[in-house]
Specification:
The structure holds two protein chains of two kinds. By secondary structure, chain A is an all-beta fold. Chain A has one domain (2-126). In chain A, 0% of the residues lie in helices and 45% in strands. Chain A contains no helices and ten strands. The radius of gyration of chain A is 15 Å and the shape is globular. In chain A, 32% of the residues are buried. Chain B is mostly beta strands. Chain B has one domain (5-207). Chain B is built from one helix and 14 strands. In chain B, the strands form three sheets. In chain B, strands 2, 4, 6, 8, 10, 11 and 13 form a seven-stranded antiparallel β-sheet that branches. The model of chain B has no long low-confidence stretch (mean pLDDT 94). Classes of the chains: A mainly beta, B mainly beta. Chain A binds chain B through residues 18-21, 52-65, 67-68, 70, 73, 106-108, 110-111, and chain B through 27-31, 35, 37, 39-40, 42, 104, 133-147, 149, 168, 170-172, 174-177.
Chain lengths: 139, 209
């Protein structure tokens, strides 16, 4: 489950909206992803110029009919440095973090939302326990 | 439309664009890829289609080419697998796969591809455990898309110029995609091994069993 925080103090999550339904007029201050098996662990990006979220899935014409969600991905861009950072959270619980040149960004520009680049340096890590505020849910 | 039927202009010796396609009900966020795996856990590549045989140089023997953006040249099958993604490739999980388009599909859009089955003389018979499953990997950020897998159905009168798309039935009791000889009829969908070297199956059929 993702949660987007905005500069006006409001937030949106995948419990209430699709990523593509988020308002364009408000700037994001941070983006978080909850771990499916460690609900107190939130993977967080903040202090960037752009943010995105996507889900990776796989489906087959034979075998199981259901679409399998493989991973949830959050990412952010530092426009000045031309660098992207991406956190990929697999359904298995494995977490991969990578940085990449923005020039090889492979997703649609339409999933990028403006960030409110704050005074803080770009950081990435574990947020406080928010499980009492909003419980992550399987998506 | 009916199944079993063969896909129009399937195989390596074809420059057709309208052979197989996948339609997405919702917009994607990245270009989709076509892969092949042992089964629907999408985790292993141990079957003979991936390992190949000595007769074909021990390389994957099911190939695909993306035809979404343009028609391929005939004899599009690569001589050897291409690392990662390519327009045409010999399929093996995430090691060798096909990039289905260069434009990210929006809701209702389709991607198209063709398939080739290279059959080596020493292929295992019966082929019960030879082939795995096709798979499409995709990314989305809005509503979850539904994927509709279709083929250009010869028995429905489908041609390259006027395709007739029949939907494959997914699931455990769903359809199969099989290599077949030239002149195959629905009563007997088989492919005959060569006595030496390899052949590209002359036809590709969609069957119920």
């Amino acid at each position: 489950m993702w949660m987007a925080n905005f500069e006006d103090g409001s937030s949106e999550s995948s419990k209430k909206a699709f990523w593509t339904q988020l308002p364009r007029g408000k700037r994001m201050s941070g983006l978080q992803l909850s771990h499916p098996y460690l609900p107190k662990l939130w993977l967080c990006l903040n202090g960037y110029d752009k943010y995105y979220f996507t889900q990776e899935a796989i489906a087959s014409p034979s075998g199981t009919q259901t679409i399998s969600i493989i991973a949830e991905v959050i990412g952010a861009h530092d426009v000045k440095l031309g660098i992207g950072v991406e956190i990929r959270l697999a359904r298995t619980g494995n977490v991969n973090v990578r940085t990449y040149p923005m020039s090889i960004f492979k997703y649609s520009p339409e999933i990028l939302y403006d960030g409110n680049r704050g005074a803080k340096e770009p950081e990435m890590g574990v947020m406080e326990d928010r499980s009492s505020a909003e419980q992550p849910a399987a998506s | 439309m009916s199944i079993p039927s063969n896909a129009a202009n399937a195989g390596n010796n074809s420059s057709a664009q309208n052979v197989f396609r996948i339609q997405f009900s919702q917009s994607l966020s990245a270009n989709p890829t076509l892969e092949s795996w042992d089964d629907s856990t999408f985790s292993t590549n141990a079957r003979e289609q991936f390992t190949g045989t000595a007769g074909n140089g021990n390389i994957p023997y099911v190939s695909a080419v993306a035809t979404t953006d343009s028609a391929p040249i005939a004899a599009w099958k690569p001589a050897s697998p291409v690392a990662g993604g390519a327009v045409a490739n010999r399929l093996k999980g995430l090691t060798n796969f096909v990039n289905l388009s260069t434009i990210i599909p929006v809701a209702g859009a389709t991607v198209r591809y063709n398939l080739d089955f290279e059959i080596p003389f020493d292929a295992t018979v019966p082929s019960t455990n030879t082939f795995g499953v096709l798979a499409c990997r995709f990314s989305f950020s809005g509503a979850t898309p539904t994927l509709t897998w279709q083929f250009n159905d010869v028995s429905a009168g489908g041609t390259e110029g006027a395709p007739q798309w029949t939907t494959l039935t997914p699931g455990a009791a769903g359809n199969f995609i099989r290599p077949a000889d030239a002149g195959t009829t629905s009563a007997n969908v088989i492919v005959t091994k060569p006595t030496s070297g390899v052949i590209d199956a002359a036809q590709v059929w969609v069957t119920n069993t």
